[in-house]
Task: structure prediction
Amino acid sequence: MMLNVNGLSSGYGDVTVLEDITFCVESEIFTVLGANGAGKTTLLKTLAKLLPVKSGTVEWRGETITDMPPYELPSRGMAYVPQEGNVFPDLSVAENLSIGGLLDLPSREERLSEVYELFPRLVDRSEQLAGSLSGGEGQMLAVGRALMQRPEIILFDEPSAGLSPQFVDTLFQKILEIREKQNVTIVLAEQNAVKALEIADRVLVLSLGKIHLLEDARDFDKNRLMEAYHI
Amino acid sequence: MAYLIFSITLMLVYIGLAQLLHIQFGMLGIPNFGIVGFWGLGMYSVGVLNVQWDFSFIPALILTLLLVALVANGLGRLILKLEGQAMLCATLAFSAIVALLVITEKWLTEGVVGLGTIKYPFDAGAMTEPLYFLILLLIVVGIQLFINKLHVSRLGTLIFSIRDNEELAASLGKDTVKIKLELFTLTCALMGLLGALSAPLNQFLTPNMLVPSVTFAVWIALILGGKEHSMGAVLGVFITFGLFDLLIESYLPVAPEYAVMVPNFKLFLYGAVLVAVLMYRPRGVLGHSAAGARQELP
Result:
């Protein structure tokens, strides 16, 4: 068991968004689905320690990280790719990648080559400011920067948001590649259920801050997803 | 000649303050509107230690540096987690508190009567003021070299990343609050040092020196020169202080009958230049440093 979430409640200030969330993530692609406001982003932000845990515990590889500050997580192999503001706009592409690799300098060049191999378009853009990239290129950069941390788990918050359907296909293919070739565990919060289910191993569906269902992607009944979306 | 040396030395103080604001705001994103507070605290601290308690200048300077660092660290712990606007108000309030304390704590500061005379730390006869100018020049050059180095260092990139997106920087494994606190403490302490070094320049300290216009002058210079550019502070002070306050107001050759118009003309020109720069070069005359001045990470 890699990531173990037990009885988790969290939210913003006095507002509780997530209540009593319990699940565990193995070495897999673990997808979190749900309608707008279901609590997907809140869940990922809480796991990335950017939101405080109100109650419950979070364990990562046997270590309790419930009260750990966010900057302690990357050295433990956790990377987070937020939905918005996921690049440093006033830094160049190369600088964005470099900053992801500050934790482990000796292997930085090697990882940089791996990222450029995965996203060749970033090579041409390396001197360009990240703020001037297209949405898709920005998302590539965000994923690349997370990979520079040589993570064991990546928390992706709606990576397909605002991207063209064609690029969404490419991006999900890349995520699958990262999972299969680099054996990185993926937690993927997504609005695009159809695409997410194509690569998911297991699915957690949130509805109004609670777990609606949690099951294997192969057994997943899409009608139950409609229930969670209140359609 | 003595006035020119005094004016240029004072300009160096403003350059130093603007350089430190560049690190705080241009690089790190901390809107410090309490510059006059740290500067004034340094100036009065050295004044009190020197005049009231008979400390010689150098020990007074060292104690002042420690005092301002301590105050900045305490203030930083309180405010650096706040949003930008709240931070701005908090630092502005801090400078107002310093100014008020100088007025009310008469037993220490002599209040509105003023505190003096603070002498130069050495006596080299006619060379005292030029030598003092050289000391300040060395300090300003030192700060500039530090900024240049910071811009092309890994720490610099990290600082820029904190300014751009602190939450993201924290999620990449950086203790952003600690970095901000350390740099805020260091730069505010140096503002205090510049204040302490300004005390012998002014010789006699009065509370009306601690007015917000000092803070605003430094801000305008930095915005005008380019808050993100490594040389923005220097150019900005050269334009505002050097061109307008020194050259136009004091050395513009005009007929005596028109001399009365010079201050108004200066203000008009000052405003016009500021508006023009903000309209056509919103990031300051020198603009952004990323494409030009900043280099690839080593």
Summary: The radius of gyration of chain B is 20 Å. Chain B touches chain A through 24 residues (CB under 8 Å). Chain B has a mean pLDDT of 90. The CA atoms of residues 103 and 111 of chain B lie 4 Å apart.
